[in-house]
Specification:
The protein is an alpha/beta fold. It contains 15 helices and ten strands. The relative contact order is 0.17. The structure holds 5'-O-[(R)-(carboxyoxy)(hydroxy)phosphoryl]adenosine and zinc ion (ZN). The site of 5'-O-[(R)-(carboxyoxy)(hydroxy)phosphoryl]adenosine has 19 residues, from helix 6 and helix 7.
């Protein structure tokens, strides 16, 4: 495949509670993040114990102009080849803010616009920091998503498993909330679990005996809430419950990942594939360690991108846009098509990465009318 000598892309991310803008360049020497600025809204949502969509959308509107100016200045105001923006899945008000900004920017500078699937950004994020080769296996575990994906190439993703209810990060956040540990709950729960006995409280094991790679965390969340109300009185009780919940989440992530490794490995021609872990939950030391051990047991190389690329950021969106634009650059008509379609790119609250699979085998029973969730 012919490759473009040098491409520079501006990326915009606004699908949840982070507003982010970045500039990424790829040249013969590799991939370079020229700038990556993020405004976290955590403080604005903390009082509510979770992300409030209306507050998020308003905050994106207030910050995006300044962030874009900063990202461009930090990158040295480079000449751009394209603009990429998250077009879904996510909180629709926020997605529309970032996408509308990107459309205006692209129109003003006569640049092509690429609407990026947020999950594709996560899927490719490991390639920002190192040259992870296709195909690889990805576990994406964040506050909004919990998926296992075979990443075979740019635009070629197979969903091996997803959550049938809550995401792993939600299980951390909601347990932390009932224990009064604050928002976001993951880091607080991890700290509290440090002095705890993970075996003290009996917690349910989800999806035992299921042969697929799907996750379920709602039973664990409910059991933890019941124990919290009935039995947690002291700091030690709290630490023991946190340790138990953390161990249960880690165990399920490992069990499902090991099953996916078993499915993925035979599809490889040769070599040692990478098992990439992305998303905020990958920051948890217990989770990280057990996944690393599992990867080694199954002959996978373990890759955990730096945290700044694991959690929501715009560099991964710029990279996903850049990878698609690079493919289009090989066909002049494809670039012309991108330019022609730019203003027609629409925001999608739901947008599965592996659309064919999500439509054929929906894990959410309501998927038919509303379209499959991410
Ligand atoms: O990827 P991310 O920053 O945002 C999206 O949800 O897309 O992930 C945030 C999630 C939250 O649920 C947060 O509680 C969880 O990642 N998280 C953690 C830790 N740090 C962040 N969960 C467990 N342990 C942590 N140390
Ligand atoms: Zn995300």
């Amino acid at each position: 495949m012919m490759s473009h000598p040098c491409l520079t892309v501006l990326g915009v991310e606004s699908s949840c509670d982070e507003t982010a803008v970045a500039v990424v360049r790829r040249d013969a020497a590799g991939t370079h993040v020229l700038s990556s600025v993020i405004h976290s809204q955590i403080a604005q949502h903390a009082d509510y114990g979770g992300v409030v969509p209306e507050i998020a959308a308003r905050s994106h509107v207030e910050t995006i102009d300044d962030l874009a100016a900063r990202a461009l200045a930090e990158a040295g105001n480079p000449e751009l080849d394209a603009v990429a923006a998250t077009a879904g899945p996510g909180l629709i008000g926020g997605v529309m803010v970032g996408l509308s900004f990107a459309k205006g920017f692209a129109l003003a500078r006569d640049l092509p616009l690429i609407g990026v699937n947020h999950l594709e950004g996560h899927a490719l994020s490991a390639r920002l920091a190192e040259d992870v080769v296709f195909p690889f296996l990805l576990l994406l575990a964040s506050g909004g998503h919990c998926q296992l994906l075979a990443v075979r190439g740019v635009g070629d993703y197979e969903r091996l498993g997803t959550t049938i209810d809550d995401a792993a990060g939600e299980a951390f956040d909601k347990t932390a909330k009932v224990l009064g540990l604050g928002y976001p709950g993951g880091p607080a729960l991890e700290a509290c679990a440090r002095d705890g006995d993970a075996d003290r409280f009996k917690l349910p094991r989800a999806r035992v005996g299921h042969k697929d790679c799907d996750f379920s965390f709602s039973g664990l969340k409910t059991a933890a809430a019941q124990i919290a109300h009935a039995e947690v009185k002291t700091q030690q009780d709290r630490a023991d419950l946190c340790a138990g919940v953390q161990a249960a989440i880690a165990r399920q992530l490992v069990e499902r990942s090991e099953r996916a490794m078993g499915l993925f490995k035979p599809t490889m021609d040769a070599g040692r594939p990478a098992f990439v872990v992305a998303g905020g939950v990958a920051a948890n030391a217990t989770v990280r360690q057990v996944l690393k051990d599992a990867a080694e047991r199954h002959g996978f190389g373990f890759v955990a991108p730096p945290m700044r690329y694991c959690t929501d950021n715009a560099a991964m969106i710029a990279l996903a846009g850049l990878e698609h634009f690079a493919q289009a650059c090989n066909k002049p008509e494809a670039v012309a098509e991108l330019r022609a379609q730019a203003m027609g790119v629409s925001a999608r609250p739901r947008w599965p990465l592996d659309e064919a699979r999500a439509l054929a085998q929906p894990v959410h029973k309501t998927a038919g009318r509303k379209g499959a969730k991410a």
